[in-house]
Amino acid sequence: MTRGETGQRAMQRAEAAGAADAGGAGAGPPRGALSLDPALSRRRMGSGALRHLPSQSRGRPRSQSRGGDPQVESLVLDVPPEVFVLRVLLEETGETFEVKNCRGDMTVRELKEELDLIAGVPMNLLVLRYLDQGILMDDSTLNFYDVVPGGIISLCVWHHDGWTDLVPAAAEGDISKLSCLGVDDDSPYQTANSLYLGEKHWRAWVAQRAFVALYVASHRGRLEAVQYLLEHGASCLGRSPMGRTPLHVAVAMGQSDCIGLLLKYGAPTLAKDAKGTTPQAIARQLNHRKDERQMFLSYWMTKSERKDPKDPKDPKDPKDLKDPKDPKDVGAAKAPQSGVSNSGSGSKGQS
């Protein structure tokens, strides 16, 4: 590049800079830039533009203190309570039950143990679902499934082997349905499972179905159904997986008429469940005085029948059991009273 070209370009740059300065003087500062002339700024803004902003305290306002921070308060409110109530809907019958004292770390199995008594259905037949059709696993906790306090859990009966037909029929107390669902030996009812059972296992299968029907009907106070089942061989001595008898659930629900009928057929008042609770203890906890008195009288009446009140000895003692057909026992029994000796030829002893 020659010296002439360099000088020419320098002159062009100087002319361009001068033109820019001339145009910018009338237009003012660029948009968004601060004005360098304070007098010009005052004339444009006017006297009303000079306003003093109120001084702000350096300290934090009381309403925004840490204790009253709305964000902190919302976090505190979002923490679920340690103990809460759940509602459980039995799909087959439409019944709703409340389970109190639930916790986030409570397992599904523990919830089933409570429903064994509250819903009146043995826990081995229960299937729990929440929000969808997924089955809640026994070892998982309520927190694992994000169960919220006051939520509704779906309770279903195990759908195999005809249980979905038997449980609603027992809950309704419909004898015409129960008689056709395999609760006695004369019922023609069969399932895919019972077709392959031998006679011994088939009888056990019928006895199990009769017990479940008695358990469900006793819980709901279906007196006619309870009487029908007891008359057709249902055992009031059967137990659920939690060790509970039909008397346990009848007492828990205050079904006094069913309690009296079960006691008449020999229901044990002191039978302990897996938690060591008896029907009498349940009546005492729930303050069911009438039911507690009824079981107390039944217990002592049964005990008095087993033991003769005139005989101070226990008849169960084998030493006191004498066979009247055995001459040795007859002679031994008469000897102290008549003074007759049992030795030799049976001559009378000297008085």
From TrEMBL:
Extent of the ANK repeats: 209-235, 242-274
Origin species: Phyllostomus discolor
Ubiquitin-like domain sequence ranges: 86-162
Biased composition, class Basic and acidic residues, residue ranges: 303-331
Keywords for the protein's UniProt record, in alphabetical order: ANK repeat
Region (Disordered): 1-73, 301-351
Low complexity composition bias: residue spans: 7-20, 54-68, 338-351
Gene that produces this protein: ANKRD60
InterPro entries given in the database record: ANKRD_45/46/60, Ankyrin_rpt, Ankyrin_rpt-contain_sf, Ubiquitin-like_dom, Ubiquitin-like_domsf
Pfam families for this protein: Ank_2
Protein name as it appears in the record: Ankyrin repeat domain 60
